[in-house]
Amino acid sequence: MKRLLLCVLLVGAWTQQADAGEKGWFGFGVAIKGEGFFLNPILASATVDVVQPKSPAAEKGIAVGDEVLQIEGTDVPGTRALKLRPLMQKEVGQTLHLKLKRANGETYSVALVAATQPK
What are the contacts of 40-46 at 24+ separation with CB within 8 A? Predict the structure, then answer.
Protein backbone atom coordinates (compact mmCIF):
# COMPACT_ATOMS: atom_id res chain seq x y z
CA MET A 1 0.00 0.00 0.00
CA LYS A 2 2.81 2.41 0.91
CA ARG A 3 4.55 1.72 -2.43
CA LEU A 4 1.30 2.31 -4.32
CA LEU A 5 0.76 5.67 -2.63
CA LEU A 6 4.33 6.71 -3.35
CA CYS A 7 3.92 5.76 -7.00
CA VAL A 8 0.69 7.72 -7.25
CA LEU A 9 2.38 10.77 -5.72
CA LEU A 10 5.27 10.83 -8.17
CA VAL A 11 3.32 9.71 -11.23
CA GLY A 12 0.93 12.54 -10.41
CA ALA A 13 3.88 14.89 -10.39
CA TRP A 14 4.90 13.67 -13.83
CA THR A 15 1.44 14.33 -15.21
CA GLN A 16 0.10 17.15 -13.01
CA GLN A 17 -1.31 20.11 -14.88
CA ALA A 18 0.25 23.49 -14.24
CA ASP A 19 -2.02 26.41 -13.42
CA ALA A 20 -1.86 27.86 -16.93
CA GLY A 21 -1.63 26.25 -20.36
CA GLU A 22 -2.01 22.66 -21.45
CA LYS A 23 -0.58 19.86 -19.33
CA GLY A 24 2.63 18.45 -20.78
CA TRP A 25 3.32 14.73 -21.32
CA PHE A 26 6.70 13.00 -21.36
CA GLY A 27 5.62 9.40 -21.84
CA PHE A 28 7.35 7.60 -18.99
CA GLY A 29 6.53 6.40 -15.50
CA VAL A 30 8.62 5.56 -12.47
CA ALA A 31 8.66 3.18 -9.55
CA ILE A 32 9.93 4.86 -6.43
CA LYS A 33 11.40 3.82 -3.13
CA GLY A 34 11.14 6.16 -0.19
CA GLU A 35 11.02 6.40 3.58
CA GLY A 36 9.01 8.44 6.02
CA PHE A 37 5.54 9.93 5.81
CA PHE A 38 3.84 8.38 2.76
CA LEU A 39 2.44 11.67 1.42
CA ASN A 40 5.88 13.33 1.39
CA PRO A 41 8.55 10.63 1.68
CA ILE A 42 12.27 11.13 1.44
CA LEU A 43 13.13 9.42 -1.83
CA ALA A 44 15.77 6.71 -2.03
CA SER A 45 15.33 6.17 -5.78
CA ALA A 46 13.07 6.66 -8.79
CA THR A 47 13.48 4.02 -11.50
CA VAL A 48 11.85 4.19 -14.93
CA ASP A 49 9.36 1.32 -15.19
CA VAL A 50 7.49 2.23 -18.38
CA VAL A 51 8.32 4.21 -21.53
CA GLN A 52 5.56 4.85 -24.05
CA PRO A 53 6.42 4.34 -27.74
CA LYS A 54 6.81 7.52 -29.80
CA SER A 55 6.93 9.65 -26.63
CA PRO A 56 9.44 12.39 -25.81
CA ALA A 57 11.11 9.93 -23.39
CA ALA A 58 11.38 7.20 -26.03
CA GLU A 59 12.75 9.63 -28.61
CA LYS A 60 15.54 10.63 -26.19
CA GLY A 61 16.47 7.02 -25.43
CA ILE A 62 15.16 6.74 -21.88
CA ALA A 63 14.81 3.04 -21.07
CA VAL A 64 13.04 0.90 -18.50
CA GLY A 65 15.46 0.37 -15.61
CA ASP A 66 17.13 3.77 -15.87
CA GLU A 67 17.36 5.55 -12.51
CA VAL A 68 16.41 9.25 -12.32
CA LEU A 69 19.26 10.96 -10.46
CA GLN A 70 18.31 14.62 -10.90
CA ILE A 71 15.30 16.66 -11.94
CA GLU A 72 16.08 20.22 -13.01
CA GLY A 73 19.43 19.98 -11.21
CA THR A 74 17.89 18.76 -7.93
CA ASP A 75 19.05 15.38 -6.65
CA VAL A 76 16.29 12.78 -6.40
CA PRO A 77 17.84 10.54 -3.70
CA GLY A 78 17.50 12.23 -0.32
CA THR A 79 14.90 14.77 -1.45
CA ARG A 80 11.28 14.95 -0.30
CA ALA A 81 8.77 14.01 -2.98
CA LEU A 82 6.81 17.26 -2.70
CA LYS A 83 9.94 19.31 -3.40
CA LEU A 84 10.29 17.54 -6.76
CA ARG A 85 6.65 17.84 -7.74
CA PRO A 86 6.71 21.43 -9.05
CA LEU A 87 9.89 20.70 -11.00
CA MET A 88 8.00 18.06 -12.99
CA GLN A 89 5.00 20.24 -13.83
CA LYS A 90 5.50 21.46 -17.37
CA GLU A 91 3.20 22.85 -20.00
CA VAL A 92 3.28 21.65 -23.60
CA GLY A 93 6.42 23.05 -25.22
CA GLN A 94 8.36 23.51 -21.97
CA THR A 95 11.55 21.57 -21.31
CA LEU A 96 12.29 19.12 -18.50
CA HIS A 97 15.97 18.45 -17.71
CA LEU A 98 16.86 15.07 -16.23
CA LYS A 99 20.03 13.25 -15.30
CA LEU A 100 19.71 9.46 -15.38
CA LYS A 101 21.83 6.37 -14.81
CA ARG A 102 21.61 3.20 -16.88
CA ALA A 103 21.82 -0.27 -15.32
CA ASN A 104 25.47 -0.50 -16.46
CA GLY A 105 26.34 2.62 -14.41
CA GLU A 106 26.58 5.03 -17.36
CA THR A 107 25.08 8.44 -16.57
CA TYR A 108 23.49 10.71 -19.16
CA SER A 109 21.41 13.88 -19.34
CA VAL A 110 18.34 14.58 -21.42
CA ALA A 111 16.15 17.57 -22.15
CA LEU A 112 12.57 16.46 -22.82
CA VAL A 113 10.12 18.84 -24.47
CA ALA A 114 6.61 18.35 -23.09
CA ALA A 115 4.15 17.14 -25.71
CA THR A 116 0.39 16.83 -25.89
CA GLN A 117 -0.62 13.38 -24.66
CA PRO A 118 -2.06 11.27 -27.48
CA LYS A 119 -5.73 10.33 -27.20
Answer: 40/9, 40/80, 40/81, 40/82, 41/6, 41/9, 41/80, 41/81, 42/78, 42/79, 42/80, 43/76, 43/77, 43/78, 43/79, 43/80, 43/81, 43/84, 44/77, 45/76, 45/77, 46/10, 46/76
